[in-house]
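Researcher: Structure prediction, please.
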Amino acid sequence: MERTFAIIKPDAVAAGQTGEILAVIQKTGFRVVGMKMRRLSQIDAEGFYAVHKERPFYASLVKFMTEGPVVVMVLEADDAIKKWRDTMGATNPANAAEGTIRKRFATSIERNCVHGSDAPETAAVEIPFFFTASELL
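Model: Predicted structure follows.
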């Protein structure tokens, strides 16, 4: 079993899509081993997305991720990282496969409703950014 980190972003939470996204997660066979709703502070968002600090979209990403509540999760399944990335769909919803979360719910490449770790090394950093070991089942 592998674990991955996921976020339901502010756009999807504000649009009332959290329940539908959680339903997709469960139907796809993930076990949710940690979940909380919270609002990211400026410092949280800057720290979490520090890897993108030199990219032109960094400031707008930080602003977007602090505009409303998010749902952060740890998901578990066989090959969870790849499985979650396949379930999310391409970053740009225009390029996402039919039936993926981003194809169904995202409105743009910036407001793409969900996040997921892209590698085991990334998950190993992202999970403890939001969860302590005692918070995970």
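Model: Residues 2-135 form a domain with the Alpha-Beta Plaits fold (CATH 3.30.70.141).
Researcher: Thanks, that helps.
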